[in-house]
Amino acid sequence: MKILFTFYNPSGGMETLNRVRSRALMRAGHECHLLYTHDGQGRKNISGIKTFITGNDYLIERLIERENYDVIVVCTDIFLLEKIRNWDYEGKVIFEIQGLGTYETARAILQDFAARVQVYADALLYPKTDHLIELMRELFPRLPQFCFDDPLDAEQFGYESYPKKPFPIVGWVGRLEKNKNWQEYLLIGNNLRGYYPDLQLWMFDDDTLSEPPEKALFEQTLRYLGLKDRLVRHSNIPHEQMSDYMSIIGDSGGFLCSTSIMEGFGYAVAEAMLCRCPVLSTDSDGVRRFIRHDKTGKFYRRGDIAHATAEALSLMRDHSRRAAIVEAADQHIRTQFSPQLYTKQFTKMMRQLGCND
């Protein structure tokens, strides 16, 4: 079977998802290609997968005509979905949603998309995330729907041992935008500094995706809190190196702090767990697939900095519970989110849609 996965740009969780699932499906004998309509920093993470970067309609149409794909998975891009059907493509087209920001934003976008999706898509694909399940079933009751977890490749990404840092580190992964709720991370870090004077904050983001007003607000907040000497900002780290950083954060006695308002899946959280780095997170929906409070991670009430600080201190000071959380989290990700399981579910979806295996 020949499959094309499309998205706007190779960045963040979508770049990881497309790369991991393509490799998994290719190991199972399928041919997978990637199409991004805009270039991005995550392109350097891709190897061994035929990848096209173009927003030119003529070139995209010729590509689809030449490669004769059995199925095209279009993530989020409603305009590309419509174009593909207008180009008389005869294979199956699956419209995929992985996360659209806050609940209100997701509902508004999907309501806007609804009429076109029902005309042009053969099926819908999305992860096991409560708010997405609710919205998809409400807005697209007549379309075939497939809902299963995204994969993580524990063989290629996991814990690496390095000399322990002499200070604890609190990490954060995301973009400087509203839904990622970066201000809350800085406030939590500012509180923890009172307990750990040598604390460091490590932020990992793609600086090319930040809007100027958000960058200005970020710099203003840093100055106001006096955190400039404590914060290390890592922009566009190659994905394969993120396992090193997460391992170092975990071994420092710190943790990954996820402050998102809403997540469709939450790759950063799952990947931290694979690197034996404990996680403190808001209950941002998608991460419920990974975190059971005090079992595989910790939740805090979004907006409650005192509660976040208390849970963070517990994670940093209760060494026996921390060790149990780290072990349980690692095993949970390895068993429930394997590429092999994803391949099985994806090929079952294809069979149900009548695609050739």
From TrEMBL:
Keywords: Glycosyltransferase, Transferase
Membrane spanning stretches: none
One Pfam family per UniProt: Glycos_transf_1
EC number per UniProt: 2.4.-.-
Limits of the Glycosyl transferase family domain: 165-331
Superkingdom of origin organism: Bacteria
Gene3D superfamilies referenced in this protein's UniProt entry, alphabetically: Glycogen Phosphorylase B
Gene Ontology MF terms: glycosyltransferase activity
Keyword Zinc: no
InterPro entries: Glyco_trans_1 (IPR001296)
CDD domains named in the record: GT4_PimA-like
Keyword Transferase: yes
Protein name as annotated: Glycosyltransferase family 4 protein
Organism listed in the record: Cohnella hashimotonis
